[in-house]
Amino acid sequence: MAFTRSRWQLLYLVPVLFLAAFYVYPLLTIFDISLRPEGALDLSSFARLFSSDFYIGTLLFTFWQALLSTALTVMLALPCAYVIARYRFTGKSVLLSLSILPFVLPTVVVAMAFMSLLGKRGLVNDLLATLFSLDYSPIQLERTLAIIIIVHVFYNFAIALRIMAGYWASQGLATEEAARTLGANEWAVWRDIRLPMIKPALLSAAVLVFTFTFTSFGVVLILGGIRFATLEVQIYYQAVSIFNLPLAAALSLVQIVVMFVMMVLYTRTQRHVQLSMRSSAGIVKPIKSRAERLLVGAIVIFASVLLFAPLLALIARSLHLGGALDLSNFAALTEKSRGSLLFIAPLESVANSLRFALIAMLAALLLGLISSFMIARGGRLGRVFDPLLMLPLATSAVTLGFGFIVALDEPPLNLRSTWLIIPISHTLVAFPFVVRSVLPSLRAIPPSVRESAQVLGARERDLLRTIDLPLISRGLAVGAAFAFTVSMGEFGASLFVAQRESVTIPVVIYRLIGDPGLASYRQALAMSVILLLVCAAGFLLIDRLRVAGAGEF
Amino acid sequence: MLTISGVSCAFGDVTALDNLNLRVEPDEIVCLLGPSGCGKTTLLRIVAGLITDFRGSVYIAGEDLRAVPVHERGFGLMFQDYALFPHLTVSDNIAYGLRRRRLSKSAIAERVGQMLLRVGLEGFGDRDVSTLSGGEQQRVALARSLAPNPRFLMLDEPLGSLDALLRDQLALELRSIIKSAGLSAIYVTHDHREAYAIADRIAVMDDGAMAQLAEPMRLYHHPANETVARFLGFSNIFRFDENEFTAELRGASERVPAADDRFLIHPEGVHLGKCPDRPAISTEGVVESVVFRGDHREIHLALPEGMRLTCKSADANLAAGNRVSVHVALDAIGHFG
Amino acid sequence: MIRRSLILLTLLFSVSRAAFAQAQATVVLVTHDSFAASEAVLEAFEAETGMRLEVLRAGDAGKMVNQAILSKNNPLGDVLYGVDNTFLSRALEGEIFEPYQSSALEFVDEAFLADDTYRVSPVDYGDVCLNYDIGFFEDHELDLPASLQDLTQSQYERLLVVQNPATSSPGLAFLLATVGAFGTEGEYTYLDFWEDLRLNDVLVVDGWSDAYYGEFSAPGRDTGSRPLVVSYASSPPAEVYFSEDPESGAITGAIVDANTCFRQIEYVGVLAGAANPAGARLLVDFMLSEAFQEDLPLNMFVFPVRADVELPAVFAEFATIPEAPAVVDPAEIEQHREAWIQAWTEVMLR
After folding, report:
1. How many Å apart are CA A400 and CA A408, to the nearest integer?
2. Beta-bridge partners for C161
């Protein structure tokens, strides 16, 4: 049976139905229960929200910390992206691949890592105290806004880096050279050419980072302590501790509306990005002068320290907490300690995590691919769909989790207590990443390339196999890496799932940290290191698979 | 004015330029002509200062340019794909170099107005450059490079992406604009017709080296070697000892060249049918094919002993298979070197 | 590639279908993330009853109760275990349980019974108490605080770390202990006490693990500096049990003086509308059986409600049980939780 173009378009239904079933429907159900408890719409929670200084304050703080984090992340990632896009140096691709690693770590673990690095008795303070013979800790970051921002930068640096580096690499040097011949010095080239040219990618990165920091939960809760609360923290508190569902729903809606506005802005800027990506390919140069070597070296060292120092501190601690080098924590992970912990040996959770991550990755790739085609070639439908599919990233996990429990409780969608709900929820968060990675390459394929293939006798499905897929393979690889990461690091704590089937690495980490006794704590650290290693292996493998093209991340 | 001496440049193992020398005199337009990959753009970028990794030296008016960074050279460079700033308007593009020279606002506005007028884009100042046609973009690029009164102008295949009609018209305009601005310029192209129209002198480059440097007329009539000739579009290239007819041509030459010398026959010196009223050598030939070229016909002839000759004719009655008498005027014979 | 992925998805769905097909012979236990039990003990239950035991976990206790209430028309399982006295009132008001009086309750002290209609039965309890670093107090020749009020004295300045009651279960329990000890009305309320604690430089962190591993000064940690922490009465035996050298004895201790602790009691109940009510009742009986009760201490570090079961040696030797924990009525807790936490937040953040 020959697939015609319009038959192919039926596939557009797949992501639409997926979002409808696993996002819109659960969300509407929980909002309905929350805001219409007695059958009549009760909006008094909104009144309470907007008349209370406390909630207005929370909203403002949420905005403020997200703005600060975003500005800092983008500013720091900018020179690094430039160096990565323009210079050839050893270790570049590894740096780029591993830069997503922070993304995978549970907040609890990141908090531990930062505390052992920057805490009162952490590595840096020890070092400074010894160097300058101080009897106090010079760096006091605990429970400050500063540490929240620093960790936000740590988490989101890779997103900004990848979006901007990818875009820059696709830009030619001609305009820069034109400006130089007209008398522009290095500073003027940055101000007049590079910054205006990178602006679309910079805005895209900024809006994405803003989304993540605006909805920040664990970082603010754990590192910020009680003085700081974002909307997401308030939603959790209202929904779980107080069980004030109307107020939680109102807060969730405010958050979703704010984020939707951001998403519309974001997808707008994205269209600009893709249009100008058609320009000639960029030029990567070897490092020549001493000044260049200094510049590249300094920037690469800065990025490596920011991204990897906390991870190394974590690894160091897992190896020798309390003085002596000790591998027994790792050995203990293969045992089913006490014959009971979570019913499986911690290392078996690696298999579970990998299984979910693979399923979520495949599903995210499939849905992301179809969605990208729909957005790039589906006209109006695609334009409307584009900002919508980003919303799962902006929705409070606890709200959606409650939605799952009440909405997905009957056949054919009786999924709330099966393990399938885990990869489904991961896919929901992961597939927007695939879309953002694939879209630019897809939009950059000139129509003439597909047309010439058609003239040569290619059917629609041949086009897909021989033209589209090879040309977007790099974007797909990047999307796959993000989808894999999202799934590996997701805790999925808000879901009811059968215990035996669903114990993942993050669940084991939380569980071990929750047990008293130093041995459990060390095993938690060892497990975090294993999570890091598994993910690092995953990224390197995925990066091997890519061929050519460009992605946003 | 501009002196390039002993310039060599390599990218990895590939030699782009090999010991190149060139002088550009005041008010002179020199065309760098050659096939793609011959090093002409590399030379341009060295002069502009965009490539700093080379051996040899570049002087302008006695000043060594080696230590002068791009933005302080005060040169104008017009890029092949124009490299307009997509985020700026037409006026802002043209004003860019003026702003770098910190001119006053009013002086900039006045100069931008002059430039728009000179390139025929009055009223386009506020337009977005992405809304312009190819020819209009080309004019903006030219105006942008001329606006700051550069002391030297470089143009890199500026007409390359335009259609033929526009190209002929703009080539003339370009020359008159450059001349009226009193500028010296290097003009890079791979189209010899464009080079004839624009250049005071043409430098033909081949594989990183200078193959010939001459005025257009001299180049046309006396290409230095077979490679240059072939690049200028000549196909009637033979050796004097090829057959009886070529030997006869050799015998009729004023100064007798060596027997194994190569030479070319300019197609307009080949007459069919009636003998011309100037010295010529005659033979018989068969028309192999006729190509209609609008104002003339291009005739491909087969002469005895397998020799093939191309010429022009206005005769509409010639057809493949016709036997014709062929007269080669002696002044149509071009010697190399 | 698309077709292959579709086939894969179809396969996945049919696998999950197959899982549903076995549902008849299963009893489903809904519980929180901290649930743990020996595999052998659970297998014994399955062997005895011929039913498969399925365990569903659902985040922390609060989240679990909320989700159970939200899904009460179509419950997630047959039995809910792990609701404690701080959330009990919410669960009972949510009408998620069906009464069931297990015969094993005769072995349980009546003080643990919270509901005279037997909608829930107690299973285990644990006391949230101050823990101290034995070495620190010995080295500094400092006396242990004997009451909460003592903590406001200057010799304990900058020594205590507690958890935020808004986000931490032991944090809330400790707040409730102060509510029980000082009351909410009168000349010196719990808020006055907290004000004094704040002036004495108490440290508040978000969660138990931050406090216990990050700030507590007991040996083996490399960042903590505070010798007093809010934790559990079972933490000292757990420290010993998990230490690399269990022979070396206790390194931490719990303070169990009257009115310094808060007792968390965990309950189990048959969910209303359970698919397998008979199995559910068997499971409740089982959780009150000697075998399960004996297994509790070393799995969840709680004490069994049955006084007749034997405690593991490490508990017998190193655990201390407070005789008079502070008491707050569950209904009061549910009613005032938000207000108390809010008032606490204002005092501590002012």
Report:
1. 11
2. C203, C229
- Are A337 and A418 members of one domain? yes
CA-based nearest distance C15→chain A, Å: 10
CB contact under 8 A, C243 and A518: yes
Q: How many domains does chain A have?
A: 2
From A297, A318, A339, the end of a domain falls on: A318
Nearest to A162, CA basis, from A213, A99, A105, A102: A99
DSSP B84: -
Query: Does C206 sit within 8 Å of A226, measured CB to CB?
Result: yes
Q: Which residues contact B210 (CB under 8 A, 6 or more apart)?
A: B20, B21, B22, B203, B204
Q: Given this structure, which CATH class describes domain B2-231?
A: alpha beta
d(CA A273, CA A137): 46
- Tokens 């000549």 correspond to B234
Closest CA to C305 of C292, C318, C320: C292
- For chain B, the structural domain boundaries read 2-231, 237-335
Closest by alpha carbon to A181, among C72, C245, B75, C199? B75
Q: If you ran DSSP here, which 8-state letter would residue C149 be given?
A: G
Note whether A150 and A274 are same-domain residues. yes
Same domain (yes/no): A241, A270:
yes
CB A141 within 8 A of CB A118: yes
DSSP letters, C229-286, are: EEEETTHHHHHHHHSS-GGG--SEEEE--TTS-EEEEEEEEEETT-S-HHHHHHHHHH
Interface of C with A in 195-254 (CB under 8 A): 204-210, 212-214, 219-225, 231-232, 234-235, 238-239, 241-244
One domain, residues A257 and A345: no
* Pairing of β C52-57 and β C26-31: parallel
**For each of chain A's 553 residues, which pLDDT tens digit applies?**
344 556 777 888 899 999 999 999 999 999 998 888 777 888 888 888 888 888 888 999 999 999 999 999 999 999 999 998 888 888 888 888 888 888 777 777 787 788 778 877 677 887 888 888 877 777 777 778 999 999 999 999 988 898 888 778 777 788 888 898 888 998 999 999 899 888 878 887 888 889 889 988 888 877 777 678 889 888 888 888 888 889 999 999 999 998 888 888 777 776 655 444 344 445 677 887 888 899 999 999 999 999 999 888 888 877 765 555 666 667 666 665 544 444 566 777 888 889 999 999 999 999 999 999 898 887 788 888 888 888 888 888 888 888 888 888 877 777 777 788 888 988 988 888 888 778 877 877 776 677 667 667 677 777 777 778 877 877 788 788 888 888 888 765 555 666 666 778 887 887 777 776 677 777 788 888 888 888 888 877 777 765 433 443 3
| Shared-domain flag, residues A61 and A177 | yes
Query: Domain limits at A254?
Result: 43-318
Give all chains having 3 or more CB-to-CB distances under 8 Å with chain C.
A
User: Which domains does chain C carry?
Assistant: 24-125+264-311 (3.40.190.10), 127-262+320-349 (3.40.190.10)
Query: Rounded distance, CA C295 to CA C42, Å?
Result: 10
The span from the CA of B2 to the CA of B60, in Å, is 4
Helix (H, G, I), strand (E, B) or coil at C137: helix
- In chain C, DSSP finds a helix count (H) and a strand count (E) of 13, 11
CATH 2.40.50.140 fits B237-335, yes or no: yes
What distance in Å separates the CA atoms of residue C273 and residue C72, rounded to the nearest whole number? 8
> What's this model's pTM, rounded to 2 decimal places?
0.80
CA distance B301 to B321: 10
CATH number assigned to the domain comprising residue A279 = 1.10.3720.10
Q: Between A and C, how many CB-CB pairs are < 8 A?
A: 194
Give the chain B residue nearest A276 (alpha carbons). B86
CA nearest to C220, candidates C251, C248, C246: C251
